[in-house]
Write a structure and sequence with these properties.
By secondary structure, the chain is α/β, with parallel strands linked by helices. The chain has six helices and eight strands; from the N terminus they run βααβααβαβββαββ.
Length: 144
């Protein structure tokens, strides 16, 4: 089964970009294990306490988490947690550097969903397929 790791901005995309997230994921990669790292959930919860569109998007994203499996990670920063889960790497230092390892609770192949350019680059450099927004409200895969 395919594992799809979703980051914070992927979960806010339905409000911010009008993406039908789970329908698009089904179209792009088919049925799979939708995974959200715990630090991304915490980030959504913090953002949802504010006002405005960003807070509304975070609140919707937090609700969408219920359709995913939340996974604890060693990383406490959401982007590092996405990298950890998507690569099967575990942090080896407090700075978040990673070394090869395994995450036996996750299946392969793995994808990560993000529109964050720097996170996308980190994932692609580690041979992770990245799903991101293409066009107005469509998702597509970028191969490493």
């Amino acid at each position: 089964m395919t594992t799809v790791v979703l980051d914070t901005n992927a979960l806010t995309a339905p409000v911010q970009a009008g993406v039908r997230l789970f329908e698009e994921l089904d179209r792009v990669v088919g049925d799979g294990d939708r995974v959200v790292p715990e630090p991304a959930v915490a980030e959504l919860e913090g953002l949802a306490t504010g006002n405005g569109e960003a807070a509304q998007a975070a609140a919707v994203g937090r609700d969408l988490v219920d359709r995913c499996r939340v996974v604890e990670t060693r990383a406490t920063y959401a982007d590092d947690a996405v990298v950890e889960l998507a690569t099967g790497a575990v942090p080896s230092s407090p700075t978040g550097e990673v070394t090869a390892g395994t995450t036996p609770s996750l299946s392969t192949p793995r994808y990560a969903v993000t529109n964050d350019g720097s996170l996308r680059d980190r994932l692609l450099a580690r041979d992770v397929r990245v799903i991101g927004l293409r066009g107005a409200n469509t998702l597509a895969v970028t191969e490493p």
